[in-house]
Specification:
The protein is mainly beta. The chain has one helix spanning 2-16, and strands spanning 32-36, 39-40, 45-51, 60-66, 69-70, 82-83, 90-95, 106-114, 119-126, 130-134, 137-138, 143-149, 166-173, 176-183, 191-196, 205-213, 222-227, 231-235, 238-239, 244-250, 258-263, 266-268, 282-287, 294-302, 305-313, 333-335, 347-354, 359-363, 377-379, 383-388, 392-396, 399-403, 406-411. It is elongated and about 105 Å long.
């Protein structure tokens, strides 16, 4: 009896001294932040989403940094406070600032910190600006179209910055940039403009650098351009003396004087004061002179340079030389008559103002205006307003004349 009672007491005492099991505290997940989109441009709006920041609903986002520098509060949530909800989440917008960091393409850290010190980070990529040229090869003085993409957005919304002016430079040499255009990007960070290839560019030259420049960064979008050299061709390339020949020049500077043409050292008559056209082209016609058979040089002087190509003078009977069609000397007056004259039926009307008499005179080829016509001829050296139906290019009075559709002020 006593033994059983002792065992019962011992059992109860053993149960009482057992150590109770303790519960482990539940920890909060690490905070995260994401960007949408994750690749952007300066001055672009992006969405910032945070999860598992401080719970309870009293926390706010106090700092968002990009590339190690705090973003101005005016560029976050339109300048308003960003609140963290009771579950520790937030969503806000952010304007990518324009500064030396974001103007340099690359990937940068973006971090968000709340008022309780809880933070998270992610990355944002800044796209690389690009430019393209069209055409990529052309003569000096020609017009090039340059198109840019991935530049700072020209946006004027709340919190944005003024997009920097983009300068276009053409490098005559590696260390000699010449500014040829300037333009502001549009709201998509793109632009399109034109420039003229500098006449000081080396002719010919390949892989000339064209680059952009923006204040606040040394980063540059680049492309290359080739300056083509001038060429002359002959048609035909062989013939007996007296054979008619046409010489064509391309890729010259615009409005360069074509000074002389010779075959085998014999000068060929050409129009006086003839120049290349606006595209740097010219055409000459003449006849092969009586020179020794065999390969003879065709030589053309344009501007300050001489250009040559070979011509084969064949033996046999000489072809009679046609009558010279270029007047020499040139007439000083050109009669104005319907359907004739130097401009033919492309001419619509002509007006002239005499500074001495202070009187207007006019010509119109329409029959109903015949009784009222007061201008009957074009006189060399005087200025006229000339209206034509369509664009017309002619060599008149030894001068290159390029008329555009509509009215043209011309020194005849």
């Amino acid at each position: 009896m006593h033994l059983a009672l002792a065992l019962l007491v011992a059992t109860i005492a053993f149960v009482k001294i057992q150590t109770p099991i303790s519960a482990s505290p539940v920890s909060q997940a690490a905070a995260t932040v994401t960007m949408s989109p994750s690749t952007a441009l300066p001055n672009q709006y992006i969405a910032v989403t945070g999860k598992d920041f401080t719970t309870g609903g009293d926390a706010t986002i106090v700092t968002i940094s990009l590339g190690g520098a705090a973003v101005s509060p005016g560029k976050i949530n339109f300048g308003s406070t960003v609140k963290v909800d009771s579950n520790g989440n937030f969503v806000t917008n952010l304007v990518v600032p324009i500064n030396s960091t974001t103007l340099t393409p690359g990937t940068y850290s973006v971090s968000a910190t709340d008022s309780a010190g809880r933070s998270a980070a992610t990355t944002l990529s800044i796209s690389t600006p690009t430019i393209t040229l069209s055409p990529t090869a052309s003569r000096a003085g020609s017009t090039i179209t340059v198109t840019g993409a991935n530049f700072p957005l020209g946006d004027t919304s709340t919190g944005t910055d003024q997009a920097p002016l983009v300068s276009i430079n053409y490098y005559i040499a590696s260390n000699n940039p010449k500014r040829v255009a300037s333009i502001l990007p549009d709201s998509m960070g793109t632009f399109s403009t034109t420039f003229k290839v500098p006449l000081s560019a080396t002719i010919p030259s390949a892989d000339n650098r064209v680059g952009t420049a923006m204040s606040g960064t040394s980063a540059s979008a680049t492309a290359t351009h080739t300056v083509t050299g001038p060429t002359i061709t002959a048609s035909p390339t062989a013939g007996t003396p007296g054979t008619g020949i046409t010489i064509t020049g391309t890729n010259f500077n615009a409005f360069d004087p074509v000074k002389s043409l010779s075959i085998g050292g014999v000068q060929i008559a050409i129009p006086v004061t003839l120049t290349t056209d606006a595209s740097g082209q010219f055409t000459l016609t003449g006849n092969v002179p009586v020179v020794e058979s065999g390969t003879q040089p065709i030589s053309v002087v344009v501007g300050e340079s001489t250009h040559t190509l070979p011509f084969t003078v064949q033996g046999g009977a000489a072809v009679p030389t046609p009558t010279q069609t270029v007047p020499d000397p040139y007439p000083t007056t050109y009669p104005l008559t319907p359907g004739s004259g130097p401009l033919g039926d492309n001419l619509l009307r002509v007006f002239r103002f005499d500074n001495v008499s202070k009187q207007w005179t006019f010509y119109d080829p329409q029959p109903e205006f015949a009784p009222f016509i007061t201008l009957t001829e074009l006189v060399t050296g005087k200025a006229y307003w000339i209206e034509v139906k369509k664009r017309q290019t002619k060599v008149i009075n030894g001068k290159y004349l390029d008329l555009f559709e509509g009215w043209n002020l011309v020194a005849w």
